[in-house]
From TrEMBL, chain A:
Origin organism lineage: Bacteria, Pseudomonadati, Pseudomonadota, Alphaproteobacteria, Hyphomicrobiales
Regions that span the bilayer: 12-29, 35-55, 67-91, 111-133
UniProt cross-references to Pfam families, sorted A to Z: MnhB (PF04039)
Name recorded for this polypeptide: Na+/H+ antiporter subunit B
Organism: Mesorhizobium zhangyense
Record keywords: Cell membrane, Membrane, Transmembrane, Transmembrane helix
GO cellular component term, pick one: plasma membrane
TrEMBL record, chain B:
Topological type in the membrane: Multi-pass membrane protein
Annotated protein name in UniProt: Putative monovalent cation/H+ antiporter subunit A
Species for this entry: Mesorhizobium zhangyense
GO biological process: one example: monoatomic ion transport
Subcellular location(s) of the protein: Cell membrane; Membrane
Sequence ranges assigned to domain MrpA C-terminal/MbhD in this UniProt record: 613-676
Keywords from the named record: Antiport, Cell membrane, Ion transport, Membrane, Transmembrane, Transmembrane helix, Transport
Pfam family, one: MbhD
TrEMBL record, chain C:
Species whose genome carries this gene: Mesorhizobium zhangyense
Signal peptide: none
Family under the similarity heading: Belongs to the CPA3 antiporters (TC 2.A.63) subunit C family.
Protein name from the UniProt record: Na+/H+ antiporter subunit C
Protein location: Cell membrane
Gene Ontology CC annotations of this record: plasma membrane
Keyword field: Cell membrane, Membrane, Transmembrane, Transmembrane helix
Protein topology in the membrane: Multi-pass membrane protein
Transmembrane segment boundaries: 6-21, 28-50, 75-96
Length: 139, 783, 125
């Protein structure tokens, strides 16, 4: 698997896929896409990187343990639901705000953070699974 | 009773449980002296209930409560009339003494705190049982007494005999509890009432109902098991494995009387029928005789007392079912007397055991000098149990003979049974209360001397109260006996018997009883020997039957498990899928719900192509001969599904499916290249035919189900809601994503939690190693 | 369209179940993967089929202007796909570990939890 072409192309492929996954995640509310799909794309990116350069390299470049990312995602999703209690609405009710920064209006919502949470859980868990299996492959 | 009565009564009901929670800590701090503190709880409860004596003796009933589960119409409510109050006073009064006695009896025991906890929990359960108004509360507390009794009998859990006795008591009384529950349900259905206070007015409704006999038998199933009526008596003597405070409290004074309580409580509702007046005296009478005869056989003081308890319970049931007001009065008096003298005698037996090291009557004697206080308490209690004048037991006995001496064959039979039973109990009373103390001093395992105040306080107070209650019988009747008898009979009764003997038939019967009793006492050793030989000849009893039943049950369940859980996965799967196919197909055929023949579908060319790719992929997976083909063909069918989603307006699904199939192929390849797993099919032809038919039937069933469903009209309510409100409410144009992250966000939260948990589980699976390491060296040292 | 998909779903179920009835762990796993697809397609078809129009509201509209695909089954299936994948991975690793520890991929040989010829439990108390 570790041919020269693959090893040369892998970093670019990975970064492109990661970028694309974030794009898919963020446009998900209005166009096809979303946290689940984005997360799967990102996980595939890490899997490819792992096949090209070995698991330790991926672990080093990810910095956090994949399951920690997953856990943070779940925490974020739950937190964005809990915010409802501050506004006295039922759990997980979407709350929207549109702050203006330097004349550009940005739509922010708890729903978006929830979707980011989903993304992180999927990225973390699936990457963790793939890396764990690849690791055995190296041995 | 002031306005503060309701919360205080509620507090009295939960106080034992609070005390039970505090008991272990208190015991750790104060050692056995914690008893003095813990006894304050039942003492306060006693005084609270004693405060109700005034209004209750004037005929009032104190009711209260609050909604427990309003949506189910369940109330936490109490109803305290003369019957409940007398029981409550016995439970709390004797409870106070028992807590103190336990402090001395289990002094230095490593689990004394646990014991206090259990016994206080039992007290709370028993208390709740006798004051409960709603059926549900009655049943819950009834079961709680069974459970706490189980814990207390099995307190010494290191011994097999204790464990067996505890399990036996739980099984017998637990089955009885189920019977009671069924009985209460029947009664509730017939009378339309769900509490006792309401039921008390529905007596005629119950008695005239065609379900009366069923309700009665179910109810008595509960009462007879709890109160150890023959043939369910065997658990009670075995329960003597428990520490003596338990025997004195649960298995003589209180818990075993729960069945009698139930019978008495139901007397105004269910009584006064032929069935009631036949079944109760019959079982009660047999129990009385069996209990006293078996008591003769014993040499252990506690066992002798236990069998006389069985007998006394029989006597109580017999009297309650006799069917006259006098008999009810007699039962009430005897119940009060019995709680006092039997509690005292049990504590005496425990005291003798504690101080001398043995409870065997053959190796005890001459303790009067060493244990004078105990001797005094014992003889007072024995005199009451023997029914001699000046004691409360005498009042009870006189009333019994007065009640049943009404002439007629049935009454004469009952009288004879009562005289024989009472005479034998008289003999046992003095065998326990007198014989260990007189005669030559016997050599005992421990050098006997008087016990500490914690130990003798209980028996002395109880024995004296039997004397005092008889001395001031007018007051006792006015406050306790008469209100209780009125509650049991369902009409106003006044008891007026006093210690001054009346000349007449009752006195003659009493004299006869005492004469017979003295004869039996003197001939005790010979009677015991002959009873022993009779029992030897019979050889089998319900106690052994219990063992056989339990073993049979174990064998049966083992056999069933062997068939059902045979450990072969392919059989489990085959059975499961046959069931799936049948549940889908049979109703469709039976109810004529088969789908109509569809018209030939009009598909575009590329749609057919995708379907064909899926079919080819499926076929290739089945026929794959090597790993690579199998993996690739699995991928093909997956991508075909993704294409199908794409063609049918589901781009989100399509992308997800693509990614998942890619990852599946990758991880499958990663794992399978490491394993020498065989992919090709090695099933024998017969097996293949079976599997193909099962799988084919399931496929056919699902296909037809789907066809039928799609031929029915479609309810679009939900889908339309999501389409219409996705942008308006949730500000999202991709309806699918809005459903996932907003409308059904909670589902998604759960689902991502599941994804994360499987990730963790996989990590754990990869990292665990079995204890005996046979893993190659190169894998060691990794995380 | 629904008719073709019904037949196809039936075929997916039949193949999945046939593979799951095998005694070889790896075939059972393949069967489970196919079974998952079968269930997803079943749910999808029950929600009725609309060709090519995804449930996305175009700009300038508050509700979809014409008939679109049913979004509800899609939302259900989307999460189902991801979950069934993670379970598939779990089962794969489980089978792999079992193979390492027990040394066989034949379910008849996997009798650690339910050993053959188990004796009667003790009859005491």
């Amino acid at each position: 698997m570790r041919t020269l072409i693959f090893r040369t192309a892998a970093p670019y492929l990975t970064s492109l896929m990661l970028l694309f996954s974030v794009f898919v995640l963020l446009r998900g509310h209005n166009e096809p896409g979303g946290g689940f799909i984005g997360g799967l794309i990102a996980a595939s990116a890490f899997a490819i990187y792992g096949i090209a350069f070995g698991v330790p390299e991926v672990r080093r470049s990810m910095y956090f343990h994949p399951m920690a990312i997953s856990g943070f995602g779940l925490f974020l999703a739950a937190l964005s639901g809990l915010l409802s209690y501050v506004f006295h609405v039922p759990f997980l009710t979407g709350i929207w705000t549109s702050p203006s920064l330097f004349g550009i209006t940005v739509d922010l919502s708890t729903v978006m953070f929830f979707d980011i949470g989903v993304y992180l859980v999927v990225v973390g868990s699936i990457t963790s699974i793939a890396l764990a299996l690849e690791e055995r492959e190296d041995g | 009773m002031g306005t503060g009565e309701r919360p205080l009564t509620f507090f009295a009901l939960i106080l034992p449980f609070l005390a039970a929670a505090a008991a272990p800590l208190l015991t750790r701090l104060l050692k056995h002296n914690a008893a003095w503190v813990l006894a304050l709880a039942p003492l306060w409860m006693f005084s609270h209930f004693a405060g109700m004596l005034g209004p209750v003796s004037e005929g009032a009933a104190i009711a209260g409560g609050f909604d427990w589960i309003p949506s189910l119409g369940v109330r936490f409510s109490w109803y305290i009339d003369g019957l409940s109050l007398t029981f409550a006073l016995l439970i709390t009064g004797i409870g106070t003494l028992i807590v103190l006695y336990s402090g001395g009896y289990l002094k230095g025991h490593p689990h004394q705190g646990r014991f206090f906890s259990f016994i206080l929990m039992f007290m709370g359960a028993m208390q709740g049982l006798v004051v409960a108004d709603s059926f549900l509360m009655l049943f819950v507390f009834w079961e709680l007494t069974s459970i706490t009794s189980f814990l207390l009998i099995g307190f010494d859990h290191a011994r097999e005999a204790s464990r067996r006795a505890a399990l036996q008591a739980l099984v017998v009384t637990g089955l009885g509890g189920l019977s009671l529950l069924a009985g209460l349900l029947v009664i509730g259905a017939v009378s339309g009432q769900d509490d006792l206070s309401g039921l008390l007015a529905s007596g005629d409704l119950m008695r005239n109902s065609p379900l009366y006999l069923a309700a009665l038998i179910l109810l008595l199933g509960g009462a007879f098991t709890k109160s150890a009526q023959f043939p369910f008596h065997f658990w009670l003597p075995n329960a003597m494995e428990a520490p003596t405070p338990v025997s004195a409290y649960l298995h003589s004074a209180t818990m075993v009387k729960a069945g009698v309580y139930l019978v008495m409580r139901m007397n105004p509702v269910m009584g006064d029928t032929v069935a009631w007046e036949t079944i109760l005296p019959l079982f009660g009478g047999v129990t009385l005789l069996v209990g006293t005869l078996l008591a003769l056989r014993q040499t252990d003081l506690k066992l002798m007392l236990a069998y006389t308890t069985v007998a006394s319970l029989g006597l109580l049931v017999m009297l309650t079912g006799f069917g006259s007001e006098k008999a009810v009065e007699a039962a009430v008096l005897y119940l009060i007397a019995h709680s006092m003298f039997k509690g005292a005698l049990f504590m005496v037996a425990g005291l003798i055991d504690h101080e001398s090291g043995t409870r065997d009557i053959r190796s005890l004697g001459g303790l009067r000098g060493a244990m004078p206080v105990t001797f005094a308490a014992a003889i007072l209690a024995a005199l009451s149990m023997g029914g001699l004048p000046l004691f409360f037991g005498f009042l009870a006995k006189e009333e019994i003979y007065a009640a049943i001496a009404v002439g007629g064959g049935w009454a004469t039979l009952v009288t004879v049974v009562a005289i024989v039973g009472n005479a034998l109990m008289f003999a046992i009373a003095f065998a326990v209360g007198l014989r260990p103390f007189i005669g030559a001093a016997a050599k005992t395992p421990k050098h006997a001397h008087e016990g500490p105040v914690l130990l003798w306080l209980g028996p002395v107070v109880l024995a004296l109260s039997g004397l005092i209650a008889a001395m001031f019988s007018t007051i006792a009747h006015q406050l306790l006996s008469s209100p209780m008898a009125s509650a049991v009979a369902g009409q106003d009764l006044q008891i007026d018997i006093s210690t001054i003997p009346h000349i007449g038939m009752p006195l003659l019967h009493s004299a006869l009883t005492i004469a017979l009793g003295i004869g039996a006492y003197l001939a005790l050793d010979r009677l015991r020997a002959s009873m022993a030989s009779v029992l030897e000849a019979i050889g089998w009893g319900p106690d052994r039957g219990f063992d056989q039943a339990i073993r049979g049950l174990l064998r049966l369940s083992f056999g069933v498990t062997k068939i059902v859980q045979n450990g072969r996965l392919d059989i489990y799967m085959t059975v499961t899928f046959i069931a799936v196919a049948l549940t889908l197909l049979v109703p469709m055929v039976l109810f004529g719900e088969l789908p109509s023949v569809p018209v030939f579908p009009d598909l575009w060319f590329y749609e057919w192509t995708v379907v064909a790719i899926a079919v080819i992929g499926l076929g290739a997976v089945v026929y794959a001969q090597d790993r690579l083909t199998a993996i690739v063909s699995l991928g093909i069918q997956g991508f075909a599904v993704a294409l199908l989603f794409m063609l049918m307006g589901a781009p989100d699904l399509s992308f997800t499916q693509f990614m998942v199939e890619t990852l599946s192929v990758v991880i499958l390849a990663l794992v399978m290249t490491r394993l020498r797993l065989s992919v090709s099919d090695h099933r024998p032809t017969g097996q293949k035919i079976l599997d193909v038919s099962v799988a084919g039937a399931c496929g056919l069933a699902f296909g037809m189900l789907l066809l039928k469903v799609t031929q029915l009209p479609f309810d679009e309510t939900l889908s339309t809601f999501f389409k219409n409100y996705s942008l308006v409410i949730a500000h999202g144009r991709n309806v699918v994503n809005v459903i996932i992250v907003d409308f059904r966000g909670l589902d998604t939260l759960g689902e991502i939690a599941v994804v994360m948990i499987t990730g963790l589980a996989i990590l754990a699976l990869i990292r665990i190693r079995t204890k005996d390491q046979t893993v190659p060296a190169k894998r060691k040292g990794r995380r | 369209m629904e008719t073709v998909l019904s037949v196809l779903v039936g075929l997916f179920f039949a193949v999945g179940i046939y593979l799951m009835l095998s005694k070889h762990v790896i075939r059972i796993l393949l069967g489970i993967a196919i079974f998952g697809n079968a269930v997803n397609l079943l749910i999808f078809t029950v929600g009725r089929i609309v060709r090519e129009v995804p449930p996305i509201i175009p700009h300038g509209f508050d509700v979809p202007p014409g008939p679109v695909a049913n979004p509800l089954p899609q939302a259900l299936i989307l999460t189902a796909i991801v979950i069934s994948f993670s379970f598939f991975a779990f089962l794969l690793v489980l089978a792999y570990r079992a193979y390492q520890e027990i040394g066989t991929d034949d379910t008849d040989g996997m009798r650690v939890a339910e050993p053959e010829g188990e004796s009667l439990p003790p009859l005491g108390y």
